[in-house]
Amino acid sequence: MPYVASSPLTTAPLTPRLRAPARSLGRTLGRAVAGVALLLTAAVLTVGGAGSAQAQLNVDITKGFVDPMPIAVSDFQPARPELAQTGIDIAGVVGNDLASSGLFKTIEKSAFLQTSQELQNGPRYGDWRAIGAQALVSGSVDLQADGRMRVEFRLWDVLAEQQMTGLAYMTTPSNWRRIAHIISDAIYQRLTGEEGYFDTRIVYISESGPQNRRIKRLAIMDQDGANHQFLTDGSNLVLTPRFSPTTQEITYLAYVNDTPRVYLFNLNTGQQEVLGDFPGMTFAPRFSPDGNRVIFSMARAGNSDIYTMDLRTRKVERLTDNPAIDTSASFSPDGSRIVFNSDRGGSQQLYVMNADGSNVQRISFGEGRYATPVWSPRGDLIAFTRMNQGTFYIGVMAPDGSGERMLSSGFLVEGPTWAPNGRVLAYFRQDPADSNGKVTSKLYTIDLTGFNERKVQTPLDASDPAWSPLIP
Amino acid sequence: MSLKLLTIVAAAALALTACESSQQNTGATTGTTQTTTAAPSGPVAGSQEALTQQVGDRIFFDFDKSDIRADQRGTVDKLAAWLKQNPSVQLTIEGNCDERGTREYNLALGERRANAVQEYLVARGVNASRLKTISYGKERPAVLGSTEYAWAQNRRDQFVVR
Q: What does the record list as GO biological process (chain B) (predicted)?
């Protein structure tokens, strides 16, 4: 099969302007770091004549445990020697992304029979079949005259002997890691039929110190743990950050001057502001799906109810008015309904209501107590924390309460958050403290079927993860 | 489950007995010296130290509960009287929970616990403007470790002179 080198048949500008993650926000909360605008363009690469053929290679990720698909990720071939490391690094990030999903098993590079250089003329399929690869990723990296980097990749079906997809990207060289994640997402999407989740970030609470003098800092990193940075300095207690689904903004709880209130943190400017002016503790914030409102709880005279605030008009609406604790509200992705936590029936349970607060219905009926419901971005499931007989669980159920199943359990697992494709969850796991107050808390991810539980590497202890949407 | 709860309550009660008796001892001594002559090294009237010695700086709650337990009412009654004796004192009531709950619910529960004492004090004639409540949920444990004893000690309101 002839391989037409770098012949983009169509060019499609992806997102015209991207903001790089704000870096080194320093120890002060408010110091602004302007995002660097980057130009990223993508071009579809196809093989002449064979581009439209339907490949057979597919991964069904809904089945529960699947045998990971063996995939070979070749180093991206450098067009000039100084790009050699970048080519190796890109392949490394792509391989790590795919393997972390649990759906793919990367084949050791030392087993490869065809070099990345030779691959530029197309795969010798027999060589890849011989080492057990079902899918193959090849690529190249080059620098343009204008200083931009051009990265292209092709995904090959080794058994059907054809290209499944191919794309080229133009970006600034420092952006290579994001390009790698974008390539991983394209491969994941082509092979699973589901949107990827690798070009995302996780905001969370970094923790250190003993139980009674715990230092908590707002922190952010890429979903694979890279590009880690602290957003606050630990002088104020901060809790429960959540990403905006539409903007580079976080809402979270901070105790400033011993006054617990919901805050907004703009990742592009580093600016933070208190959400509204309320007479009582505001907490448990989350954005609405359109990003225009924040839903939160406010405590007045010992009673917590659920409110929303429109970020543009500042209009506040009260959604529950009940002497029970009403908290941890989360919108359905279409914005029409809200799931929340209440003890109005005598113990903590999950309830669903319309977005205007009407038609409240209890949906959790198992043994024990239920908490922290989060509606999946796909709308099909609600993730939660459940506590029963001294054990904590992370579980999911349908919005009508049916089909409940537990994905993980432990002494303390809490606070699930969905990857934007609704297929993977992150949460935190805390171990019992010793008598000196030494406590360990780490972030984990698990796929929806309950397999492939993995620890997310963080510099210190970690809790309260919140997954970002796909970076725009 | 009920057996476990019993154990928790028992542990809490034990802890309390120990805690209260020692506090009552010191409290009684200080109280006596105060009414007779000014003690040369006693705590400053209306100070945090005085509150801790003369009243006790905390009360405890049952698991997932915010009503003031019968065995804790005495401390809150003493607190009400102490606040009347020290009319310039401004008090913050800090509501706390054990680690066996979820973060957001515990913030709400801690708020309830702080408010329970505030309402009790106001009902006994303490001016509400002197009182402030704050919930720390499960973020500020007083006793280290992950034991029934630690949890019973951490389900508490703490009284802080501002």
A: cell division
Residue of B nearest to A259 (CA): B134
pLDDT in tens, A145-202: 999 999 999 999 999 999 999 999 999 999 999 999 999 999 999 999 999 999 999 9
A367 touches chain B (CB under 8 A): no
Q: Of A214, A372, A390, which has the smallest distance from its Cβ to B102's Cβ?
A: A372
The closest CB to that of B146, out of A302, A327, A432, belongs to: A432
DSSP for A144-183, written as a single string = -TTS-EEEEEEEEETTTTEEEEEEEEEE-GGGHHHHHHHH
Interface predicted TM-score (ipTM) of this complex, two decimals: 0.87
Query: Over the stretch A23-62, which tens digit does the pLDDT of each residue have?
Result: 222 222 222 222 333 345 566 665 543 433 444 566 665 5
Q: Is A237 on the interface with B (CB under 8 A)?
A: yes
Cα(A228)–Cα(A230) distance, rounded to whole angstroms?
Answer: 7
Q: Which of B131, B133, B125, B39 is nearest to B85 (CA)?
A: B125
- Which domains are seen in chain A, by residue range? 8-192 (3.40.50.10070), 201-467 (2.120.10.30)
Domains identified in chain B and CATH numbers: 2-36+45-161 (3.30.1330.60)
CA separation (Å) from B53 to B39, B111, B133, B156? 14, 25, 22, 18
Q: Which residues of A touch B134 (CB under 8 A)?
A: 258-260, 281
Residues of B in contact with A342 (CB under 8 A): none
A316 touches chain B (CB under 8 A): no
* Tokens matching residue A381: 């499931």
Query: Is A454:A100 a contact under the CB 8 Å cutoff?
Result: yes
Chain B, window 20-59: residues with a beta carbon less than 8 angstroms from a chain A beta carbon: none
Spell out a b/e string for A203-223, using b for 16 or more CB atoms within 10 Å of the CB, else e: bbbbbeeebeebebbbbbbbb
Amino acid letter, residue A301:
A
